[in-house]
Amino acid sequence: MWDYPRPPRLDPTPAHVVVVLGGVTVLDTRRALRVLETSHPPTYYLPLADALAGAFRPAPGGSWCEWKGQASYLDVVGGDQVAEGAAWTYPSPTPGFVDLLDHVSLYPGRMDRCTVDGEVVRAQEGGFYGGWVTDAVVGPFKGAPGSLGW
Predict the structure, then answer these.
(1) Nearest Cα to 118, choosing from 42, 28, 56?
(2) How far is CA 35 from CA 25, 52, 77, 112, in A?
(3) CA Rg, the chain, in Å?
(4) Hey, what domains does the chain have and what are their CATH numbers?
(5) Taking Cα atoms as reference points, which of 123, 126, 118 lies closest to residue 137?
(6) From CA 57, how far away is CA 80, in angstroms rounded?
(7) pTM greater than the 0.90 cutoff
(8) Which residue from 41, 53, 94, 126 lies 20 to 30 Å from 148 (Cα-Cα)?
(9) Segment holding 96, helix H or strand E
């Protein structure tokens, strides 16, 4: 993970990614994209076309990424649960990240469960970063206490 590039790189992955909220599978795909950036575990971007209808809805707020552009926030809806502002998308990504169009990423720690090839994902520490920690990546990762200046 420390050999991930800066600026970040966008890679397709054939991994089987599943997201569950409220006991419902809200997204199941083998067409995910990963953003790989120095000091971060991968962030998975999942095609909205593979999401359960109604699982994502617009939410207030947004943020700016120097690499990807302006993000819009989304609520995630599964069963009788709503994870407010737990996902984001780039409606007009920058040219280097245009493949993120019509994809969504989310905070795995705010879901019931996210898996990559059957392995349960652990959330990246900190309230801002959305990295997906699996046994395939080794930290330390930005987001942990004391890592703000990395």
Answers:
(1) 28
(2) 23, 23, 24, 22
(3) 14
(4) 9-131 (2.170.150.40)
(5) 123
(6) 14
(7) yes
(8) 94
(9) none
CA distance 52 to 111: 15
Which amino acid type is present at position 39?
A: S
Note down pLDDT in tens along the chain; length 150 residues.
566 657 889 999 999 999 999 999 999 999 999 998 877 889 999 999 999 999 999 999 999 999 999 999 999 999 999 999 999 999 999 999 999 999 999 999 999 999 999 999 999 887 767 889 999 988 777 776 766 665
Q: How far is CA 146 from CA 45, 107, 140, in A?
A: 27, 21, 11
The 3-class SS string of 17-45 reads EEEEECCEEEEEECCCEEEECCCCCCEEE
Phi and psi, residue 62, nearest 5°: -175, 180
Structure tokens at 106: 């989310």
Q: What backbone phi and psi angles, to 5 degrees, belong to 61?
A: 95, 175
Q: Of 33, 38, 53, which Cα lies nearest the Cα of 98?
A: 33
Say how many C-beta atoms besides its own lie within 10 A of residue 61's C-beta.
12
